[in-house]
Amino acid sequence: MNTKGIALVATLALMVVIALLVFGTFFTTQIELWTTRNDTTSVQAFYAAEAGLQKYKAALFQQYVWREKQGGTGGGSGCFTPLVNGLDLDRNGTLIPFTNNQLVLAENEAVMDAFGNPVGRYRVVLYKDAQDGQLFTLVSQGTSSGAKATVQATFRISNAGYLEQAIFAGTGQANKWLNGGATIRGGIYVVGSPSDPDQTVIAANGNFALYNWYDLYDLKAYPGIASRVEPGYQKVQDLCASLRVQYGKISVGGSAQIGEPTNKVKGVFVGRGAQDITGENGKNVDVCRNNKNNKGVKGVCTETLGGFDLSNPPPFPTLDAKLDSDACSAYLTWRDCLQNRAALRIRRLGNLVSIATPLGVNLDPSCLQAMQSGTLTLDNKDKDVDCTFTRPDGSRGGFRYTYGGGKGLLEVFGDVVLEGLNLVLNQPTDYQASSSSGSAKSATFAVLKDKDGAGGNLDINGSLLPDASFGSFPGHALGFVVEKDLYQGGQYVMAPVYAGGTFRVEKNNVLFGSVIANEFYTTSANAGQKAEVVYIRIPKENRPVLLPDLKGGKPVFQVLSYERR
């Protein structure tokens, strides 16, 4: 036997085995390195995409806040935000417009490591919803050494300011009962009491409804109203309505309905969440119907339901607190602002009625005489009331009421303040409102109490509408500030209103505009009588400047969804 040959074969076989083991180990190591490298680049691509998303999410919100604080940002009905027209990321007045509802915000932008070396790049595109002006989606695609990752998020960007609701309330309902077929078209915001979070601030019963739309072409419901309103505001299918309660509970009973299956409200955000939203035998909260089956239950139809969602909510405005608006920011209180900014201020102390602002003007005797009793009643039975004056530049200030042809005409030239007086409008009345400068067709009419508590109430017993020959709503708007109670007994009122006490609308009456009131109720002593509030948004540049609209409002940035691909 040749032992040397066998040894050679065994040695070669052993070397082959060792080589295979070495190669296998090397191959396994390479696979692990390739896998690790792929994992690393995939992670880097994801973080590059995430970096793009987070950067431009912040930029989008900052852009919205900045644009809201600018004057003359325009406006529109329904789900409006100034971002629908494009972005001004350089803040130089030049908008980058959307093309086919999309806008490229970043192209091949680099992400650096701690040493300044690029570890990935991203491309970010912003999409706006074609129908909803508050809905936006950011899509960020990251790359790193051939690896790709995509992340996207959808946001709702809105404003929770005072004039962005159908009703903005302090404590809520005066009688804690929305019944008799009351209808609110637009959002409701209730602050409530932080010391009593278990209080029911809205008890919706009967045929109460909160809808996300209105149609003024409905001649049966609103005869003659559409002609008073600008075409773009005559019909709105999406008001971006939400129901918010900061402190307190809501109860939904009977056949009450919040939203509809085909047009849900954007959100119901109440107190501590589901525990503060109750229904009749638990039926109304978790159902969403248009019919009256199941004993008339309709329920809550909303895209989102949960606890109160604002981290910096607006407080209920009061006359003796500071109002951080463009017009009133220099004054310690809103009352000071009204008194000092008024084109005409008339006050009654005891039995004496006098002109507080401006000094040295002479008014027609009919003006002060009409106020001697403590109540200024504008009616067909009284003589016309002329409280106007002419400024040195030839412009007019004050207000005038005349009656003829079966209705009154209230002309307001600049902002007007009455102190220690009540105001009563007994007849159907058209108004013409113009600012002190005459550049805007809007003004504020304030009715305040005196230091002894006299005055400060407004009763509107006939329809009060803008004179369409002078300008249509909301480009033409007269706002009312009432320190105590505002009662609407007239069929139609078209104006933004504030009541520091109670706002009440009853019978078959409708307010078009918005309501800010500490307490409100939309029913009368007789059940079954319908009342309604229809939210019509006023463009920022034409809002009566002395109404409580926070400078920039309270921006809300809600993340509706997040997806990694």
TrEMBL record:
UniProt keyword annotations, A-Z: Membrane, Transmembrane, Transmembrane helix
Keyword set includes Membrane: yes
Transmembrane annotation, as ranges: 6-27
Record keyword Transmembrane present: yes
Name of this protein: Competence protein ComZ
